[in-house]
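hey m, so remember when u said the C-alpha cells were messed up on ur end? i reran from scratch. heres the input so u can diff it against urs
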Amino acid sequence: MSRAAFYDRFTALTGLPPMQYLTRWRMHLAARALQQAGMTVANVANDVGYQSEPAFIRAFKKTLGVTPSQWRQGKLSIGG
C-alpha cells in the first residue's frame, strides 16, 4: 500500500490523519500517567516519546487545552 493510500484509508477509518491520531493517543496516555503519584512532567514526556519537556508541554496544551500541571490540578477545560 502506498503512503498516500494508507493516509487516505487511515483518515477515512479514524476521522483523523495518522500523525494527529498518534499525538492524541500519546496525550491520552500522558494524561493518565499524570494522575499517578510520583510521575514528573519530565518522566511522562519521556515515557510518551518526547525528548524535550517544553515540546511535550506545548503539544499537551495544544491537544487538551490545558498544561500538564493544570491537568494534574483538575483544571480541565478540554479544548481541541
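this time it looks ok to me. Residues 18-34 form the longest helix (17 residues). if urs says something different then somethings off w ur setup not the seq
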